[in-house]
Amino acid sequence: MDQGRQHLGCPRLNLHGTGLDGEGLPVVPVTGEATGEMWITAHRTLTRLAELGESAGVTFTLENLNTSVDHPGVPFATAADAFSLVAAVDRPGVRMNLDLYHAQIGEGNLIELIRRAHGAGLIGEIQVADVPGRCEPGTGEINYPAVARALTDLGYDGTVALEAWPSGDSHIAMERFRAAFTL
């Protein structure tokens, strides 16, 4: 194990398109589309992070966010943006943290999104929560058993992380998460 990974104690570190404050809002909000200069800067920054991650045995994962409910003003927020940036960097030290809660709000068509990102080898982690409410699978509109089947069919063997609020009892929430991803 690399010294950096030993020091940090984790294989992955999560990134966002900008710094977020305690409320999940961007420290420096963006109005409108990201400029070409912002894309170039993001590419350079992610390339440098990929180099650092690779030397330390850590993968940085760029998380997609939604701008309509939780994170207005965040640049590079969509799964399409994260996909484009990670594909452009094209280094193993940077991958997508594909957050399906945010993708459902911002883009939908989750299974096709998973297929595309997995086929390109860009997924570093998948995060789940249901819409609306950001609670555990089974409390909203996302068909997580279908998502789990798609992941299994694709041979995805990476991390699926629950990043959600329990809708009630936390033990029941964990059982719902387990049930949604047990085929």
Explain what you see.
- With 183 residues, this protein is an alpha/beta fold.
- The protein contains 7 helices and 5 strands.
- The protein has helices at 3-8, 36-56, 79-89, 100-106, 110-119, 144-154, 170-180; strands at residues 12-15, 59-63, 94-99, 123-128, 160-162.
- The longest helix has 21 residues, at 36-56.
- The mean pLDDT is 93.
Topology:
Blueprint: H1 3-8, E1 12-15, H2 36-56, E2 59-63, H3 79-89, E3 94-99, H4 100-106, H5 110-119, E4 123-128, H6 144-154, E5 160-162, H7 170-180
Parallel strand pairs: 1-2, 2-3, 3-4, 4-5
Helix pairs in contact: 2-3, 5-6
Overall strand count: 5
The fraction of residues in strands falls at: 5-15%
Rg value: 16 Å
Shape: globular
Instruction: State the separation between the terminal residues, measured CA to CA.
Output: 33 Å
List keywords for this structure.
183 residues; single chain; 5-stranded parallel β-sheet; 5 strands; alpha/beta
Short structural description:
This protein has helices at 3-8, 36-56, 79-89, 100-106, 110-119, 144-154, 170-180; strands at residues 12-15, 59-63, 94-99, 123-128, 160-162. With 183 residues, it is an alpha/beta fold. Helix 2 crosses helix 3 (79-89) and helix 5 packs parallel to helix 6.
